[in-house]
Design brief:
The complex is a heterodimer of chains A (371) and B (104).
Chain A (H helix, E strand, L loop, with lengths): L1 E10 L2 E8 L2 E8 L4 E8 L4 E8 L3 E7 L7 E3 L28 E7 L6 E6 L3 E4 L7 E2 L1 H4 L16 E7 L7 E6 L2 E5 L7 E2 L22 E6 L7 E5 L3 E4 L7 E2 L8 E7 L7 E6 L14 E4 L7 E3 L17 E3 L6 E4 L5 E4 L7 E4 L5 E8 L1
Antiparallel strand pairs in A: 1-2, 1-28, 2-3, 4-5, 5-6, 6-7, 8-9, 9-10, 10-11, 12-13, 13-14, 14-15, 16-17, 17-18, 18-19, 20-21, 21-22, 22-23, 24-25, 25-26, 26-27
Chain B lengths: L2 H8 L7 E4 L1 H4 L7 E2 L5 H11 L1 H7 L10 E5 L2 E2 L15 E6 L5
Parallel strand pairs in B: 1-5
Antiparallel strand pairs in B: 1-2, 3-4, 3-5
Helix pairs in contact in B: 3-4
The chains are: A mainly beta (371), B alpha+beta (104).
Chain lengths: 371, 104
């Protein structure tokens, strides 16, 4: 069960652990100051907090806390196997040779099997652990899939796995979202992978390639835990919803004030409720009219309400990244962090927001605590 | 008998360069100055990492090349072969592993 009196915020300059004092969330501890914290995951099975670090100079690392972020130990980070002699792995846009080396840990998710964790990286390798993160193995079927040669960078120079969705009823049913490489599904625990992008349209590609699955750019994909066939996608070109496990995606044309953005959160309980944080598209990537707003649908995307109460409405340039929005188990409590270091919380499903801070470092990821 | 000891015995490894790591790295993993056997930078650093395995991934990428934002100097000159680290060293060589000014 989520603990709304504690949260973890990963930023460009370290991890911030906040706790509620006299009703207000305040910074209780800072860790890894100076290092980028690209992902945090609370694993309730062992009450452990996993924190992915990207040192500016010294690479991607993983740390684990068993005391709610009070102390940490470094644990094994994923490592690519050597690229075999004679194997060429060329970036399709830049035509340069790709390195097989972890640049950044961009996603972490609890798996459905005992001790299982999934981890997504830049440059696009998916790793799995069966021992709570003590060791990691590259998923070769996905890494060796011929379609990976068409993946290219979206947001970063290299392609990266930012979303990992595990069917709560079936541990072998896993989706991964790749910027820029489509949405992929396995039904056999990672032995085989199929694209699940039908309905998505990539406006940034030439006309004859706009429906090609492996070059779709789903910025973020979120699953309704109670109804895992329902997922929401904030795509580079628009927003989508599926109610058949990704077999068909329908565009959310009613989303306003724009259909561009990075973050989406699905209500864990209600398949018709989700939140988006719209922005001006593509080459601008700022809030529309300098106003930070959150759009919520409660009817499966047929219509959206746009909320602004408590959020800056004048000359605000906060962008909310892919992992900058988290909903609690019921969907009433939301946490949101921005690129300009603003952190907000809402307890009425996004209708109004309280400012927690306006001066943290740029925020990459936020997560409510657990009890 | 270790391969290294055997190499020393047979005279295959002639140099014992000094290896110094930036204090910025010491924040994350202990790697004090050391003098290690090695005829080139790869051999010297691998001998350091054998004693301090955690330090390896802080300096080298998964494929064994020097990390993009790590700078290595050998006797005052920037490392030439950042992929294989084949730059030769001698008995009095000093290898400095520093952070680049980029990447922070």
């Amino acid at each position: 069960m989520k603990n709304l009196d504690r949260c973890f915020v990963g930023t460009r300059k370290g991890l911030f652990v906040l706790e509620r004092r006299a009703g207000r969330l305040v910074v209780k501890r800072t860790e890894f100051l100076g290092a980028q914290v690209s992902m945090v995951l609370y694993d309730p099975r062992q009450n452990t907090l996993l924190v992915a670090i990207k040192h500016g100079h010294f690479g991607a690392k993983l740390h684990r806390s068993t005391d709610q972020g009070a102390t940490f130990e470094e644990i094994a980070a994923p490592v690519f196997p050597p690229k075999p002699e004679g194997v060429s792995d060329i970036d399709p846009i830049r035509k340069t040779e790709r390195k097989w080396s972890v640049e950044q840990i961009w996603s972490l998710e609890v798996g459905g099997n005992a001790g299982e964790l999934w981890l997504g990286t830049l440059p696009g390798g998916l790793f799995r652990s069966t021992d709570f993160g003590a060791s990691w193995q590259l998923n070769r079927p996905l890494w060796d899939h011929p379609a990976r040669s068409k993946w290219f960078g979206g947001g970063y120079d290299s392609p990266g796995i930012h979303s990992i969705l595990v069917n709560p009823h079936n541990a072998a049913d896993v989706y991964i979202g790749v910027s820029c490489g489509g949405l992929w599904r396995t039904l056999d625990g990672g032995e085989t992978w199929q694209l699940a992008t039908a309905g998505m349209v990539a406006e940034y590609m030439p006309p004859n390639l706009q429906t090609q699955g492996e070059t779709q750019d789903p910025h973020r994909v979120a699953m309704c835990k109670a109804h895992p066939n329902v997922m929401w996608c904030q795509h580079h070109s628009s927003a989508y919803r599926t109610d058949d496990g990704g077999a068909n995606w329908k565009e959310l044309k009613a989303l306003r004030p724009s259909r561009f953005g990075f973050a989406v959160a699905a209500c864990p309980a209600d398949p018709n409720t989700a939140w988006f944080v719209p922005a001006i598209k593509d080459e601008v990537r700022l809030p529309v009219d300098g106003k930070v707003t959150v759009a919520r649908t409660t009817n499966g995307g047929k219509s959206f309400d746009v909320f602004s109460k408590g959020l800056p409405q004048e000359h605000a340039y906060d962008l909310v990244y892919r992992h900058g929005l988290d909903a609690d188990s019921e969907g009433g409590a939301l946490l949101m962090g921005s690129t300009t270091g603003s952190l907000w919380e809402s307890f009425d499903g996004g209708e109004s927001w309280n400012t927690v801070s306006n001066h943290l470092p740029p925020i990459y990821c936020v997560a409510w605590g657990y009890r | 008998m270790s391969r290294l000891f055997l190499s020393l015995l047979l005279g295959l490894v002639k140099a014992m360069p000094k290896v110094v790591f930036t204090s910025a790295l010491q924040r994350h993993v202990a790697c004090p100055d050391s003098t290690v056997p090695g005829n080139n930078v790869r051999q010297a650093l691998e001998n350091v990492f054998r004693a301090r395995p955690k330090a390896r991934s802080y300096v080298l990428d998964d494929d064994g090349s020097v990390r993009h934002h790590v700078a290595v100097f050998v006797d005052g000159a920037a490392l030439v072969d950042r992929r294989e680290l084949s730059d030769e060293v001698n008995e009095s060589s000093e290898i400095y592993v520093m952070q680049a000014l980029s990447g922070g």
